[in-house]
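User:
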Amino acid sequence: MSVIVIEFITLDGIVSDPDGSAGTPTGGWAFRHGPETVAGDKFRLGSTLDDGVLLLGRSTWQLFSRIWPRREDPFSARMNAAPKLVATRTLSDTTAWANSKVVDGDLIDVVKREQRDVVITGSLSVVHALMGEDLIDEYRLLTFPTVLGTGRRLFPTDTSPAYLECLSAEQVGATVLSRYGKAAR
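Assistant: Predicted structure:
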């Protein structure tokens, strides 16, 4: 089992509001390079979506539950078919997106017990909680040639040091997909 974080990210480490749905002044930065930049399996998840589980925070799940169920392309079919765990204290009805259920119990314990690969997309509060427990095995970052200067960062300034190993990097249109794993200790 691996815990894989996937994020759209700017050159200066900002991950907040890539699609503009939060209405921030700099939101929508990921789509300024066209829809093809973010469409399909840009994170090279492949069968991980078939065999793993998506873990989403409430806000990300609510956004995705309005978007993904209406899509019918092959990647969307995989996203819609994948089992989904929703980390929330307030949401109880997850019927808007098939195969979704609220995390039952403590998030950290649930992730530690999970037998399947866990893929977290967006959901910065979930990512930060798992970072704090050193539970993330891999980061897959789609880096956009954008500098925002402000916004929520994947790695906040008060984060403990993390030593990662570059597993791969490739240009994907206007972006770079980089994969980082835990460095050997």
